[in-house]
Design a protein that fits this description.
With about 375 residues, the chain is an alpha/beta fold. Helices cover about 40% and strands about 15% of the residues. It has helices spanning about 5-10, 15-30, 45-60, 125-135, 155-170, 185-190, 210-215, 225-240, 255-265, 290-305, 325-335, 355-364, and strands at about 65-70, 75-80, 85-95, 95-100, 105, 120-125, 145, 180, 200-205, 245-250, 270-280, 310. Strands 1-2-3-4-7-8-9-10-11-12 form a 10-stranded mixed sheet, sandwiched between helices. A two-stranded antiparallel sheet has the order 5-6.
Length: about 375
């Protein structure tokens, strides 16, 4: 379901602009439709008033909690059921943030993300995206929304942008507290400046080397990292929000001095923050995070050389907070119950990295 369908439904029941705005505002803020001191009979058309309970129930069914997995750091990973039986993951983040999913599956195929292993299953509708925020708000206060869950937001641009507009207006979320995360896509740089609500931008960079980036993000648009940084910088200057560059540190892959030199060359002097997230090892796979000493050295070196850098740890590492892991585990459980034997290996490097990126963005 998308937001326009909800609007059309309200209008078909006799809602005027004020009624429509009120209904969407209460929904996005996780408040009952009968909220307020004024009786509904005094200002609301009867057909709309009588339809509200059914509409509330339908909206509540867009994103239903299947399971909750709290982390020791204050985060909680939620497995969320959609009304067609598909599931996505939503993460409650420390400091009143939430990370939402924009697709069931993903087509980009990042080698350190489990979500993309089965490809794209379907898009998440704009109302389903907002419903994840509503669900989160029913559980705890939410003041920041990061679009870093399952899926590549640029591949579901209309739905994600519609959700951002509603959350930034009726939902009461500050515009810079809505964070659009992307691997980099020309459509993003064209579309985001056009909206009334202009979100902050997080760019998954991970390397400065074009060839290596194609290996790590095999189906991302083939845009040179230098060009991505240039376009992100223009957007940052236009909006007044710093770009948040995301970099998953993998030992022997993207933690060398040559990468640090290139980061300084590309980003020094830019309106930006570099978030370094050590890779989370998966049993049986060969990739590893750099040592604590090397990670600290990278952090200090970049800051000393003029690149504002923050070292982040994954939110919810103790609850398998890697994007797609809960969903995969549930799928394995369903297969086992049907007597199906399945083997699903975690993607190289993914056991919390997406949660770390989301937590990093939420902390800004």
């Amino acid at each position: 379901m998308n937001i326009d369908q909800i609007r059309q439904r309200l209008r078909s029941l006799g809602a005027g602009p004020g009624h429509e705005q009120r209904a969407l505002r209460l929904w996005t803020q996780a408040k009952p439709q009968n909220s307020g001191k004024q009786a509904l009979e005094s200002f609301m058309p009867k057909p709309l008033r009588e339809a509200l309970p059914a509409l509330e129930a339908e909206l509540a069914g867009l994103a239903q909690l299947r399971s909750e997995h709290p982390g020791a750091d204050g985060s909680a990973r939620l497995l969320v059921g959609l009304n067609d039986g598909q599931t996505v993951e939503t993460v409650l983040l420390p400091r009143e943030g939430v990370c939402v999913s924009s697709q069931v599956g993903c087509a980009v195929g990042c080698v350190f993300c489990m979500t993309g292993r089965d490809g794209l299953i379907r898009q998440v509708g704009s109302a389903e995206i907002v419903a994840q925020v509503v669900l989160a708000r029913s559980m705890r206060p939410v003041r920041k929304v990061v679009f870093m869950g399952m899926g590549e937001p640029a591949h579901n641009l209309d739905n994600v942008c519609d959700a951002i507009q509603l959350l930034g207006q009726e939902g009461g979320i500050g515009h810079k507290s809505l964070v659009f995360s992307t691997v980099g896509d020309e459509r993003v740089f064209e579309r985001l400046p056009q909206g009334r609500v202009k979100p902050a931008l997080a760019l998954s960079l991970h390397t400065t080397k074009p060839e290596l980036r194609r290996e790590l993000l095999p189906r991302a648009p083939a845009i040179d990292p230098a060009e991505l940084v240039a376009q992100a910088e223009r957007y940052a200057r236009a909006t007044g929000y710093p770009v948040q560059y995301q970099w998953t540190l993998i030992e022997g892959v993207n933690d060398g001095d040559d990468e640090l030199d290139a980061i300084v060359h590309l980003i020094k002097g830019h309106y930006a923050i570099m978030n370094m997230i050590p890779y989370n090892a998966v049993d049986g796979l060969g990739w590893r995070r750099p040592s604590t000493e090397r990670t600290t050295e990278i952090f200090r070196s970049l800051n000393q050389r003029g690149v504002l850098t923050r070292l982040r740890q994954s939110a919810g590492q103790d609850v398998e907070a890697g994007c797609g892991q809960l969903r995969a585990r549930e799928a394995l459980g369903r297969g086992a119950r049907r007597g199906v034997v399945s083997i699903v290996a975690a993607a190289p490097g993914q056991s919390g990295d997406v949660a770390a990126l989301a937590a990093a963005a939420s902390a800004e």
